Amino acid sequence: MSKKVAVVTGANKGTGFAIVRELCKAKFTGDVILTARNEKLGNEAVKMLKSEGFEVAFHHLDLCDQGSAKQLSNFLQKTYGGLDVLINNAGMSFKNDATEPFGEQAEVTMRTNFWGTLWVCHALLPLLRPNARVVNVSSFVSKKALDTCSPQLQAKFRDTELSEEELCLLMGQFVIAAQQGNHQAQGWPNTAYGTTKIGVTVLSRIQAHILTKTRAADGILLNACCPGWVRTDMAGPKALKSPEEGAQTPIYLALLPEGAKEPHGQLVWDKAVQEW
């Protein structure tokens, strides 16, 4: 029951797949569980890693299904009695040439990137053992999007006292404004992906603050990170980093040594804390 376990979401391809591989290469002292929405693709990814000599297990996880996150939580509780590393990598973005209305793009992207991450955290954070590490994969686009928000919205997103409930309300307001076609007039950036990643970055700060208040002695560290511009299906072939290079910062945060005090509640890019 005390064996360590790491979970990586959205890991059947791209950066998530590379993160799983790099965790194994780093000789994480426990089981590594690759999750994906598509069971066939997830099992194929595990088979590929096993062919490379890495011991990885698959578990289904659909970010947009709260019941799916609860099933994963039950499995971890029953099998391991807790959780030591959680890397919330799963996410999506519409292509630049997508034809769906912006309001639809905003709703779908928010449901996956923000609400999905939140639901997984609600299901799995209660399982964290002392010295656990949590990495929420955000993006440098969140900072760029923040800089184009109105001064009022920027102040809210930089407010260290902002609650999770208030953040959820803001994310909902963006989707409504996007559907009404007046999001920019209300001070929002013209990017659904960037706004959802603002949510992930700020959520990480809020979650870290809560952990500090409720489990100060347990040494748990939780951060958001940007893998960089990575060559994946989502970012395209012109991106500067390979998936393996993109995995480096998430792995760095996931394997911060026991006793480390920081970073915690930060946005980290190329292993360096970024000003928010």
UniProtKB/TrEMBL annotation:
InterPro entries: CBR1-like (IPR045313), NAD(P)-bd_dom_sf (IPR036291), SDR_fam (IPR002347). The lineage of its organism: Eukaryota, Metazoa, Chordata, Craniata, Vertebrata. This is carbonyl reductase (NADPH). One of its GO terms (molecular function) is carbonyl reductase (NADPH) activity. Keywords: NADP, Oxidoreductase. Pfam families: adh_short. Its EC number is 1.1.1.184. It comes from Salvelinus namaycush (Lake trout). Belongs to the short-chain dehydrogenases/reductases (SDR) family. It comes from the Eukaryota. The keyword Oxidoreductase applies. The keyword Oxidoreductase applies.
